[in-house]
Amino acid sequence: xxxxxxxxxxxxxxxxxxxxxxxxxxxxxxxxxxxxxxxxxxxxxxxxxxxxxxxxxxxxxxxxxxxxxxxxxxxxxxxxxxxxxxxxxxxxxxxxxxxxxxxxxxxxxxxxxxxxxxxxxxxxxxxxxxxxxxxxxxxxxxxxxxxxxxxxxxxxxxxxxxxxxxxxxxxxxxxxxxxxxxxxxxxxxxxxxxxxxxxxxxxxxxxxxxxxxxxxxxxxxxxxxxxxxxxxx
Amino acid sequence: xxxxxxxxxxxxxxxxxxxxxxxxxxxxxxxxxxxxxxxxxxxxxxxxxxxxxxxxxxxxxxxxxxxxxxxxxxxxxxxxxxxxxxxxxxxxxxxxxxxxxxxxxxxxxxxxxxxxxxxxxxxxxxxxxxxxxxxxxxxxxxxxxxxxxxxxxxxxxxxxxxxxxxxxxxxxxxxxxxxxxxxxxxxxxxxxxxxxxxxxxxxxxxxxxxxxxxxx
Lengths: 233, 216
Known about the structure:
The complex is a heterodimer of chains A (about 230) and B (about 220). By secondary structure, chain A is mainly alpha-helical. Chain A has helices at about 1-15, 20-35, 55-85, 90-120, 145-170, 180-210, 215-230.
């Protein structure tokens, strides 16, 4: 019974926090200047005047991990592009689409950081999802079809993570409701992911049928030439 | 009759063999005389790519810090986010150079680390961060000089005495040029900001931030 009471008090306090706490803070600091003007150190902080509202506080760890995953993917695509840029592989089209993907992950990481701070949050670069880099020894020097397959897997993983964040912000987790977060995820991620995933899936279908033909080397050359003019993101 | 059977057999063979997916192709046989970079120099160049990326993530952390609601310095944030992307571009330029010289045909997966955690994540003021940025640039400059030294006169036995004129010229003319200009720019900004903040601490930083936001 006591526990219930404590819980209720905490909840009540939490709700009260959405009232006029920032105003009270501001009154407090203004008064403190008049009263203790002899003191050297004054506490001018306004803890209740942050930009946080809605469910952003609970969403933060997930969003921070999402930023860090984008930074990692940016490096991984960079390596895949580099591999296709060397003179032995010499596949400009593959190099281009992986570099485009790398650029896009980087830009998205910056965009996400700006978003986190827009909602009053803080970016934590050491909050890394445990299985993002499952293997430090993973190889990024892949054959053409395998590299497209890997990219498709990576994009799907990012898309599913976006769904997860969207779901949590839409009351999938108890009491969490933040339509601003879910709308941001929809507009900036969900639709783009669908485009990229569809394109990559289409490429793997094409390449699979081309590679089973009589001259797979020529097919690869022509497909690579085709990729040069495609935009993946 | 025999001919027909053998034709059928051959056709069947062709059909089944082409039903296999050929994903792997033999390495082409290309003369290697043109690949003339020496090992110690390549090693230094590869390490420099990681250095540039680490600088880029450090700038990213600065951008994130100044974007916070409690800090609210959008001009500084914009400046540092741009610096982060510039450092990343430097890494990509170094990669392109190595590819042009016939390097990076193997061991590509180990070229960069997949996660980088920035060593510093908060600053007491804008001028504090600019000073850190200048120190960071000075370190990068020193590292580039290290690459130049190794590529001009490689000390290790593997590359004894091989002067890589073109790379040395490229690093000196393009990379060092940008470093020195960037460092002067940072030093000038620190100078102006610190002088302003001498007597007008909060107002000085506020105004400088808005100016940064307009200029960039």
